[in-house]
Amino acid sequence: MANWVDQDFHVVGRKPAVDRFVRAGYVRHRRGEVDDLLYLDKLCPPTRTEKRAEDSPDLAVVLALFRTRTQAMFTMQTRSDYPAGFYRRLPARWPELAFAASVNEEMSSFGGIVIALDGEVIDLVRDHGAGYNRRAHAREIRRALDRWDARLTGDRPWRVMPDAPWKHHSTPVDAHLDDGWWLYFRTREEMAAFRARYRSSHPMRHEGGEWRRTRSPAR
Predict the structure, then answer these.
(1) What are the phi and psi torsion angles at 62 (to 5°)?
(2) What's the domain count of the chain?
(3) 8 A C-beta contact, residue 190 and residue 158
């Protein structure tokens, strides 16, 4: 039986572009079906000079989709392998968007991250077999994530942590979500408006290179 590869796949950009991406590849299950699907070859068809490897995934099973106006995050699985070609083609097909994915094979035989920013793809998925250097890999990932974090939060110095975010699969706010379930906002007023509508905790502001607790209107 083929193993599954877990991925948290983030799509970040202006709302019209994120909407187009979701409409182009995401299909909810119909009555009598079980799985929501993300059709990878519809989103990024192989080029004429590039033939998709026979065992490379062409679709993903979507376990959950979380949306804000400016981000979609797919919790998904592919069979046997991760779709390296799909991730590699993203900048050319969707240049107005930025992407990041964590990749973890269920038996821990390989894993890492893939980031696509400003036309560049950084693929740090590595086999965990003989010769694998965990510390060196972790350093590579940390440097890449610093880049991603700068894109995700650079102009968003306000953040909160929603309570039970899995209960709100779509929140119509201009906010970015990270893997720790923090939501990042451009202004205090936007953060306060979110808190007035959704239960959340730990309002914080980025000051002097650090995140500090801050006051926010009660929800």
Answers:
(1) -95, 115
(2) 2
(3) yes
What span, in angstroms and rounded, lies between the C-alpha atoms of 49 and 39?
21
C-alpha pair distances (Å), 173 with each of 28, 67, 187, 195: 23, 9, 12, 11
Amino acid residing at 154: G
Number of other residues whose CB lies within 10 A of the CB of residue 47: 11
Query: Is 0.85 surpassed by the pTM of this model?
Result: yes
Domain membership of residue 96 (yes or no) is: yes
**64-106 tens-digit pLDDT:** 999 999 999 999 999 999 999 999 999 999 999 999 999 999 9
Provide the sign of the torsion angle of the four alpha carbons 183, 27, 124, 48, taken in this order.
Answer: negative
Evaluate whether 109 touches 130 at the Cβ level (below 8 Å). Answer: no
Domain enclosing residue 175, as ranges: 158-213
Cα-trace Rg, the chain: 18
Q: Is residue 24 domain-shared with residue 110, that is, in the same domain?
A: yes
Task: Name the DSSP letter for residue 167.
Answer: G
DSSP three-state, residue 71: strand
Sign of the Cα torsion 161, 162, 165, 168 reads negative
